[in-house]
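Researcher: Here's a chain I'd like modeled. Treat it as a single chain, no partners, no ligands.
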Amino acid sequence: MNKIQVRRCTPADAAALRDLLAGLSATTAFLRFFAGVGTPSTRFVAALLRRDETHGAWVGAAGTALVGHVSWARDGGAAEVGVVVAEPWQGQGLGRSLLAAALAEAGRSGLTDVRLHVHAENRRLARRLSIGASSAALADGVVTITRPLSDFLRAQATTALVA
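Model: Modeled as a single isolated chain. Structure tokens:
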């Protein structure tokens, strides 16, 4: 397996993030964004790269190519999080590593919970993320899972990829 670097994103990642998103299969794009992505707009890519006191974003890089992305946004006391990993890199722990990095940053911002929206068709992920959840609700084909951030970070600590 090639070595992956998990790092904070920068504005310079815009073109590589656009390439990552445009190269996703229809299924992966749908499970992450609940819609097709096609060629993402500059505005959409900029929103995914946003970093400030209420937002964060991290990428997984294999050389100059991005192979994964995670972003978080403050929603009350929770970090609302979304993760996507390119198909060839799925199942190797990159999603967990990206999530761990983003949630550690969100925790430093004072957030106490994590909220994830998982498409109901993604049953395996919804089941896995629901373990230890303070709430999990299904509405309109989406499972919304809320977990204590501290519990989630403890669970993630043993599965992080070497960056």
